[in-house]
From TrEMBL:
EC number: 5.4.2.-
Taxon lineage: Bacteria, Bacillati, Bacillota, Bacilli, Lactobacillales
Biological process annotations from GO: negative regulation of glycolytic process; regulation of pentose-phosphate shunt
Protein's organism: Enterococcus italicus (strain DSM 15952 / CCUG 50447 / LMG 22039 / TP 1.5)
InterPro entries the UniProt entry points to: His_Pase_superF_clade-1, His_PPase_superfam, Phosphoglycerate_Mutase
Name under which the protein is recorded: Phosphoglycerate mutase family protein
Alphabetic keyword roster: Hydrolase, Isomerase
Top EC class of this enzyme: isomerase
CDD domains xref list: HP_PGM_like
GO MF term list: fructose-2,6-bisphosphate 2-phosphatase activity; isomerase activity
Alphabetical list of SUPFAM superfamilies matching this protein: Phosphoglycerate mutase-like (SSF53254)
Length: 227
């Protein structure tokens, strides 16, 4: 049996990413530069024999996967489906507002003077999730338990399915905070970070029911596709 690997991609840069607005379950399309970067990524991944492709059900993730598979010589033959469990976090009534507003509110809820101070004090994902839940006036945001279960079962089910079918490599398109959170669920030493680049690849090995992080937020595949 081949070893099981997930190539987890953050979707391409979108309109809301560009104007720095909160984008969780709400959605905007990729920009021209976002499309170009993903095309380079697709080229950089084109020699990898993927056995499966999975994206979140958000439009930006679907568009990203479509462009990755278009650059792959076997892209039309790679089984592809979506999974809502690997969506971005839901930010509730904070969706669509400016990033600076949300990251201004969250520290105050957690009794920090500002965002930088909050990060410097190693705030946890659970604290941030609880703050979003408390700030959400629409009652759409998830509890920490709901979020943890959704993200973990989503990625683990993908890996387990690939393993069950003989192993191999799968390409998965998800979202920045969700990927960072998954890294924490795999290894609690991975703390909060929001600097995962659009189009970057995090490579995970799955063996004996456990994930190992082999590569994190790499842009090497984009650079390879540009050459």
């Amino acid at each position: 049996m081949a070893k099981t690997e997930l190539y987890v991609v953050r979707h391409g840069k979108t309109m809301f990413n560009t104007v720095q607005r909160v984008q969780g379950w709400c959605d905007t399309p990729l920009t021209k530069s976002g499309v170009e970067r993903i095309q380079y990524l697709g080229s950089g991944l084109s020699d990898i024999p993927f056995v499966e492709a999975v994206s979140s059900d958000s439009g930006r993730a679907i568009e990203t996967m479509r462009r990755i598979l278009k650059e792959h010589p076997n892209g039309k033959d790679i089984p592809y489906h979506t999974d809502e469990r690997i969506r971005e976090w839901c930010f509730g009534s904070l969706e669509g507002g400016y990033d600076a507003e949300m990251w201004g509110v969250i520290p105050r809820i957690l009794n920090f003077p500002d965002y930088d101070n909050m990060i410097a004090n190693h705030v946890s994902f659970e604290d941030i999730c609880n703050a979003i839940y408390d700030a959400d006036t629409a009652n759409w945001a998830e509890t920490y338990q709901q979020l943890s279960t959704r993200v973990w079962t989503g990625f683990e089910d993908i890996a387990h399915r690939v393993e069950k079918n003989g192993g191999g490599k799968a390409v998965v398109v998800s979202h920045g905070l969700t990927i960072a959170f998954l890294m924490h669920l795999i290894n609690e030493e991975n703390t909060v970070r929001v600097d995962i680049d659009n189009g970057s690849v995090t490579r995970l090995l799955y063996e004996n029911g456990k994930f190992t992080i082999e590569e994190f937020a790499s842009t090497a595949y984009i650079e390879k596709g540009m050459n």
